[in-house]
């Protein structure tokens, strides 16, 4: 003779019987914990990414790149200024040279101002220069100094009688309250025709 266990009633859908095993208590708790951890990790990643972006945007490398660009622009402009000689406005020419200079270069221009004016007045023609290339060779952001190599074609305004000469100079630049200025100019090699 076989004995059968009494049949248990099957709970209706959507209801849990008294003997039903726990279905979602521990699983739901684990899911909520996992979701909370994922949200916290996501927030931390967003914050860290934002901080890193901010540090990079304000870091020395960005500032150094901006200084390099600024000194390069200033050196190119100074190169054209110091090669622009207006025979009919000798005093104005020297004043423009002084405006792009600082330090010992400015001192020399101011000390010899009258001699430069007389020399320009005796030139056979006015001249102008065109910067053909320039490169920052050194930049010390903390000291506010830079060394820039500048190549220029200098042309006499004599109706094309004299071919342009190629000039190469090294400019020692210094950061001032008015921007980058020339502290010293030295020729590099000789002038090429």
Topology:
Layout: H1 25-57, H2 60-82, H3 90-99, H4 103-111, H5 113-121, E1 127-140, E2 145-156, E3 165-176, E4 179-187
Antiparallel strand pairs: 1-2, 2-3, 3-4
Helix pairs in contact: 3-4, 3-5
| General shape | rod-shaped
Integer average pLDDT: 83
Give the proportion of residues in helices: 40-55%
Strand content: 15-25%
Specify the biggest β-sheet: 4 strands, antiparallel
Rg (C-alpha, Å):
38 Å
Total beta strands: 4
Q: Identify low-pLDDT runs.
A: 17-22
Order of helices and strands: HHHHHEEEE
Number of helices: 5
Give me the side-by-side strand order of the main sheet.
Answer: 1-2-3-4
Could you say which structural class the secondary elements and strand pairing correspond to? Answer: alpha+beta
Terminal Cα separation, in Å?
Answer: 124 Å
């Amino acid at each position: 003779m076989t004995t059968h266990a009494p049949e248990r009633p099957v709970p209706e859908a959507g209801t849990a019987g008294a003997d039903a095993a726990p279905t979602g208590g521990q699983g739901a708790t684990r899911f909520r914990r996992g979701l909370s951890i994922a949200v916290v990790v996501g927030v931390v990643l967003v914050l860290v990414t934002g901080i890193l972006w901010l540090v990079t945007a304000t870091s020395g490398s960005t500032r150094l790149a901006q200084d390099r660009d600024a000194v390069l622009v200033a050196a190119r402009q100074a190169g054209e200024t110091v090669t622009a000689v207006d025979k009919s406005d000798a005093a104005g020419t020297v004043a423009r040279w002084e405006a792009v200079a600082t330090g010992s270069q400015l001192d020399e221009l101011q000390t010899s101002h009258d001699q430069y004016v007389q020399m320009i007045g005796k030139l056979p023609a006015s001249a102008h220069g065109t910067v053909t290339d320039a490169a920052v060779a050194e930049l010390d952001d903390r000291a506010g100094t830079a060394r820039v190599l500048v190549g220029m074609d200098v042309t006499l305004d004599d109706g094309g009688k004299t071919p342009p000469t190629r000039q190469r100079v090294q400019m020692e630049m210094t950061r001032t309250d008015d921007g980058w200025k020339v502290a010293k100019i030295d020729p590099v090699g000789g002038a090429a025709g």
